[in-house]
Amino acid sequence: MYRDIFIPHQYLLILPARSCAMTEASDEQRPTVLIVDDDPNVTSSLARSLRDRFTIFTATDAETALHILQQQPVAVILTDQRMPTMSGVELLARARELQPEARGFIISGYTDPAALIEAINLGSVQGFMSKPWDIAALRRKLEQLVQEYQIAVHERRVAREAQAQIAMLRQLLDQAQADDVMRLELVQWENEVESSATSVPAMGSPLAQTSPALFNDLVANYSSLLDLATEQRGLQDQRSMPDRLRVFSERLGLLWAGPRDVIEIHTQALRRLCRGQTPQRIAVYMEEGRLVLLELMGHLVNFYRIRLAAQSHE
Predict the structure, then answer these.
(1) Is 36 helix (H, G, I), strand (E, B) or coil?
(2) If DSSP codes are grouped into helix, strand and coil, which group holds residue 63?
(3) Crossing angle between the packed helical segments 259-274 and 279-312, to the nearest 10 degrees
(4) CB 102 within 8 A of CB 95
(5) What single string gives the DSSP state of each residue in 157-219?
(6) Which CATH number does 2-133 carry?
(7) Inter-residue long-range contacts of 162-169, CB under 8 Å, 24+ positions, other chains counted
(8) DSSP tag of 54
(9) What letters, b where the CB count within 10 A reaches 16 and e where it falls short, cover 12-33?
(10) Which end of the chain is more exposed for a tag (fewer CB within 10 A), N or C?
(11) Domain ranges of the chain
């Protein structure tokens, strides 16, 4: 039911045959794993063992692997450590420059412990397994890495979408002729969100640093809202959500919460909800979370519009 398609640069894409009646949409939802090993027998064996769950690319050298990464989004890079021109650790460090969210995993019979520890500390390697591998354990690890990848991609997407809300807040401050202190705070918020968009995971927000107990309470409340929104969407009944989000946004507004605070609350809540869940459930939480976050930011913008307009007339 599967066919192996050989394409240039010595890499292999294994796709389900169309006779499987699998739709293109379901193909796109399959996480992509890149397997890199200079032994073609190893790449073929791993591909056969994993292709029922993942879309598989294989490469027999680091240069080909980097070529694939330049053209194809990859969730997990599964690589050997000892290869002729570049080690697995070096490959994953280069790969991080091309795809920061991709998770790196080394499977090898030989490794340099010092180099591996350094790579793990730098964030380019998320795990290691010795040859011969236990395929069941490897599959479990790949599922975990895919979840981490999906959350990282979602966080970056949320940070980008928050930029539009920041622009709107800046416009509101200009219209309301807010004082220089408020303008400076907004510039700081914008810089923080831009920083969070280029580093995964995001750094702590001001509320998390100055009021940890309050921040944790906000995360717990938002987690409940997000979980409720997900359940109500399944029942096609979300009549109560706008009011609940409006009340929550007013609480944030009274705290002068910035976009970075909202993103950090959203990120922490999402991590709580996704812990231990299936990839399908995680995908539901992430999509619903994106919609809830945008609605929440809209309510917060409206709150600040009213508050700042009132202050400008005092």
Answers:
(1) strand
(2) helix
(3) 160
(4) yes
(5) HHHHHHHHHHHHHHHHHHHHT--HHHHHHHHHHHHHHHHHTTSSSPPPPHHHHH-HHHHHHHH
(6) 3.40.50.2300
(7) 162/193, 162/259, 162/262, 162/263, 162/297, 163/190, 163/193, 163/194, 163/197, 165/259, 165/297, 165/298, 165/300, 165/301, 166/190, 166/193, 166/259, 168/301, 169/259, 169/301, 169/304
(8) S
(9) bbbbbeeeeeeeeeeeeebbbb
(10) C
(11) 2-133, 150-312
Per residue in 273-298, pLDDT tens? 888 787 778 878 888 888 888 888 88
Distances (CA, A) of 102 to 32, 47, 137, 152, 307: 10, 18, 20, 9, 42
**pLDDT on residue 35:** 95
Instruction: Give me the chain's average pLDDT, please.
Output: 75
Q: In what order do the strands lie in the sheet with 103-108?
A: 2-7, 11-16, 55-59, 32-36, 76-79, 103-108, 128-130
Nearest Cα neighbor of 64 from 42, 96, 86 is 86
- Record the tokens describing residue 219, joined without a space: 């995360």
CA count, 13 A, side-chain hemisphere, 250: 7
Residue with structure tokens 């027999």?
60
CA-to-CA distance for 265 and 220, rounded, in angstroms? 9
Tell me the one-letter amino acid at 234: G
Higher pLDDT, 107 or 66: 66
Residue carrying the six token digits 């979602």: 154
Length of the chain as a residue count: 314
The two structure tokens encoding residue 62: 């680091």
How many beta carbons lie within 10 A of that of residue 61, not counting itself? 19
Residue with tokens 């997407």: 157
DSSP letters along 234-256, please? HTT--TTHHHHHHHHHHHHHHTT
Report whether 175 contacts 123 (CB < 8 A). no
